[in-house]
Amino acid sequence: MHDQQETMLTELMSIDFAIIELNLYLDTHPNDQRAIEMYNMNVQKSKQIREQYEMLFGPLTARYSTSKKSWQWISNPWPWNKNFMNRIEG
User: pLDDT, tens digit, for every residue of 64-90?
Assistant: First the structure.
């Protein structure tokens, strides 16, 4: 896996985690404008990174992605085949 690809995946996972956490927070604090702004900003950032990633490296999911020349979904390592622990530990 390329360093850029791994960096983008790590950033995307972090942003998506923040989106989930903000979503849960907003379930109990629906009028928190700062949290709403953070949520919206993270959703837009996630979309941008996801689009850029898929242009460079292929689809992340089969559900919301399209393939151009061949069925690209099977070309990338599966999530459980990626070793993010080395990046965190090292």
Answer: 555 555 555 556 666 666 665 555 554
Q: Which pLDDT value is given to residue 2?
A: 77
Contact 53, 9 (CB under 8 A): yes
| Residues contacting residue 43 through CB under 8 Å, at least 6 positions apart | 19
**Helix, strand, coil percentages for the chain (3-state, nearest 5):** 70, 0, 30
CA distance 82 to 90: 15
Domain ranges of the chain: 3-89
- The contacts of residue 73 (CB under 8 Å, 6+ apart) are 58, 59, 61, 62, 65, 67
Tell me the pTM: 0.69
